[in-house]
Design a protein that fits this description.
By secondary structure, the chain is an alpha/beta fold. The chain has a single domain, classed as Rossmann fold (3-Layer(aba) Sandwich). It is built from eleven helices and ten strands. The strands form two sheets. Strands 5-6-4-7-3-8-9-10 form an eight-stranded mixed sheet, with helices on both faces. A hairpin with a 5-residue loop joins β5 and β6. The longest helix has 15 residues. The radius of gyration is 18 Å and the shape is globular. The chain starts with 8 loop residues before the first strand and ends in a 5-residue tail after the last helix. It binds adenosine-5'-triphosphate and magnesium ion. Adenosine-5'-triphosphate (ATP) binds next to α1, β9 and α9. Pfam families: AAA_31. InterPro entries: AAA_dom (IPR025669), DNA_Partitioning_ATPase (IPR050678), P-loop_NTPase (IPR027417).
Length: 291
């Protein structure tokens, strides 16, 4: 019996870190036409679990497979914008789109150094958005109406949420077809996930019946520690096949790539972590979460 965390070569079969037989996900076929986009929120109210890193790295990997990707920075910290080398000083941001200061999302979209990967940036202004939006009509649906205007031009839109379950995150979930939950492989990882799933269920009941859990992504996994392996085993016990086969290892290459303002897939394309994010991109295509 293979257990999560054991990489047992049983009669030549490779069990991955999640304890399942490892699948070779094929390279995605090129798309002959683009859009409409599938919108995926990267969501976990716990901070520092890899939401932004995953948005950048997976976005770049999907773009390298010929997908047209729009990344939306939905965190006032602006880490996604910074990680893609974009500083939004006096250009329109997602805040201006939400508040209606800027009507056309094209005015806020910037291209990044990664071909095929565009960005709607954010800055600290966004921290005031919840207060301003509270009194709006259909306040949970504002991001959805913004993204609808550009959806036809992209294959996938990735919304990098802030670590909270407030109105902005509810907007992200309401706009999304799917949600991807990055989960750090450490002791408190599972804390709060029940609340997150409850929030997704409420959004499904009240606002967005079609939303799906696209997957739970284990991040910062260290195969050398029993602790990491045990946490992953618990996560697989709790969520079964919702846990993606791809697991992201812990490595200092990520902070290094962030400083350089480029995705790991460009910073160190042959590094294990870059390979893992390319595999994640292929797995999501294989699962039908991305065209
Ligand atoms: N697999 C990894 N191995 C090592 N460090 C990582 C890994 N993934 C991300 N990091 C680092 O951990 C920190 C937090 O990652 P990241 O910003 O992606 O998390 P987040 O969930 O977006 O955080 P927040 O909730 O604050 O938005 C960053 O410094 C990042 O470089
Ligand atoms: Mg983040």
């Amino acid at each position: 019996m293979a257990r999560a965390g054991q990489n047992t070569p049983l009669e030549g079969i490779d069990f991955g870190p999640t304890g399942r037989i490892q699948t070779e996900f094929p390279e995605p076929a090129p798309l002959s036409e683009h859009g409409p986009a599938r919108i995926i929120s990267l969501c976990n109210q716990k901070g520092g679990v890899g939401k932004t890193t995953t948005t950048i790295s997976m976005g770049a990997a999907l773009a390298a497979y010929g997908r047209r990707v729009l990344a939306v920075d939905f965190d006032p910290q602006g880490a996604l914008s910074a990680g893609l080398g974009v500083v939004a000083h006096d250009t329109p941001t997602i805040y201006d789109l939400l508040l209606g200061h800027t009507k056309d999302p094209h005015e806020a979209i910037v291209s990044t150094k990664v071909p095929g990967l565009d960005l709607i940036p954010a800055n600290i202004d966004l921290s005031a958005a919840e207060v301003h939006l509270v009194g709006e009509v259909a306040r949970e649906q504002i991001l959805a109406s913004v993204l609808r205007k550009v959806s036809a031009e992209y294959d996938v839109i990735l919304v990098d949420c802030q670590p909270s379950l407030g109105l902005l995150t509810v907007n992200a979930l309401t706009a999304s077809h799917g949600v991807l939950i990055p989960l750090e492989c450490e002791f408190f990882a599972l804390r709060g996930v029940a609340l997150l799933i409850e929030t997704i269920d409420k959004v499904r009941d009240r606002l967005n019946p079609a939303i799906k859990l696209d997957g739970i992504l284990a991040t910062m996994y260290d195969s050398r520690t029993l602790h990491s392996r045990e946490v992953l085993e618990r996560v697989v016990e709790a969520f079964g096949d919702s846990v993606l086969e791809t697991v992201i290892g812990r490595t200092v290459k990520f902070p290094d790539a962030s400083v350089a303002g480029v995705p790991i897939t460009d910073f160190a394309p042959e590094h294990q972590a870059a390979k893992a994010y390319r595999q994640l991109a292929r797995e999501l295509v294989a699962r039908g979460a991305v065209a």
